[in-house]
Amino acid sequence: MSDSTDRVRGADFSLAGRVVVITGGAGLLGTRHAEAIAAAGGTPVIADRRGGEADAVAASVATAFGVPTLGVATDVTSETSVRALFDAVMLRFGRVDALVNNAANNPKVEDGASAFSRLEDFPLEQWTADLAVGLTGAFLCAKVFGTAMAAQGHGVIVNISSEYGIIAPDQRLYAVEGMPENQQPKKPVSYTPVKAGLHGLTLYLATYWADRGVRANTITLGGVENGQPAEFLARAAQRIPMARMAQPTDFQGALVWLCSDASSFVNGANVVVDGGKSVW
Fold it and tell me: Which of 23, 63, 75, 268 has the smallest count of CB within 10 Å of its CB?
């Protein structure tokens, strides 16, 4: 058998038998992440503060893909809640192979909402809440699940970031014609620090447990089409070389790759999936 055949066989994208915890798993992207894991044969655990919706997504994915699933009500800002999630996963499956830190606040300003979004008016409590969910939550989940994966000698952590973690928001996208400048909506100031911080966390984790078989990587997502006004979609498309916003399924291949053995030597990477926007 040729060496080249051996290398091809080494590109193993299967997640069969692997348990993958997805925070924010009942949201738009979390659901698509779960479907991608299940389609590759994995067992997705849907962790979301909305327990009923987590259960519903888990049931739907189990029916559609014929794999075991679990939904767990989880507040990622609470270490007690995250440890309860870990206990539930171990009780049900006895193992955990990957963690996808997907939970985040993402205030919508595409519809012209501006009451809180401008830096001058941005409430401290909103800043604190956004960092608690998007960054502290990822830290707590990495702490609990990463420790367990290091103890077992293998595991993967994937932090889900955004293009606004590597480039500044183009605030012109959110402009409302005829609105006074001091009232124009803005992408909130908390969003970029959270998303940039997630890759910083990746870099730290990539070195921390590398000798224990735990890899950590980031997926940086481009903006996702999700019912925004047509004018907003057109403006956004003009700023993307592929001339469209992402679909929720456009990130699935990257996630499966990073969770699988096909990326076994990928560690500390930032995989940018944005249609080329950040290269302009």
Answer: 63
Q: Which fold has domain 15-110+127-169+192-226+248-279?
A: Rossmann fold (3.40.50)
Which positions ≥6 away from 215 have C-beta within 8 Å? 155, 156, 157, 206, 263, 264, 266, 267
Task: Report yes or no on whether pTM surpasses 0.85.
Answer: yes
CB 130 within 8 A of CB 105: yes
Given a contact cutoff of 8 angstroms between Cβ atoms, the answer to whether 219 and 195 are in contact is no
Nearest to 219 by CA among 269, 176, 181: 269
Q: Which of 164, 191, 204, 208 is catalytic?
A: 191
Q: Of 18, 63, 9, 7, nearest to 40 (Cα)? A: 18
Ranges of each domain in the chain: 15-110+127-169+192-226+248-279
pLDDT (tens digit per residue) in 41-86: 999 999 999 999 999 999 999 999 999 999 999 999 999 999 999 9
Is 164 tagged catalytic?
Answer: no
Question: Rg of the chain over CA atoms, in angstroms?
Answer: 19
